[in-house]
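Re: weekly structure request thread

Next one in the queue (167 aa):
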Amino acid sequence: MDLNVLTAPLTVQEIEWRVQSQTKDGQKIIVVPYITNRCVMQRFDDQFGWAGWQNEIKEIDGGFLCTITAILPGGEMIRKTDGASRTSVEPVKGGISDAMKRCAVQFGLGRALYDFPKVLIQTTDKYIPDWATPLLDKMVEKLNAGGAVRDVVVLKPEHAKPTAKAV
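Done, posted below.
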């Protein structure tokens, strides 16, 4: 079966970024890409139709298992399962969402995120600065177009296009 909708490159609108850590010297943050559970549901709806797939969540010790079952055009069912721990923020909701996203990777959705470069952003702040977002989007577009990107990318304020000043 062609899972072209699930395995299509993720768009800049589907990818979100979060701060993973700050460097020891406090001059940079390390950011990682991720997709939301809403993105997973939309891609599965687009691939199989609203009634052509389902997920089942089971609570296990310390986390959750998610099983996604999809119905192929010929009627054959495929089923994949993966799990995740409870998260530190919103332990139940976060754990369920993470389990579903991990399960979706087994169908090919978001697998390319594991091949993204390590991204550092030059800032002493603990959050992704506004100037970095367009640079992250540009990098995603370059990756989606098959362009080469270094294994480690360092984004700096001087890489951002200057904004027009109000008069």
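Residues 91-106 form the longest helix (16 residues). The two ends are 57 Å apart (CA to CA).
Next request, please.
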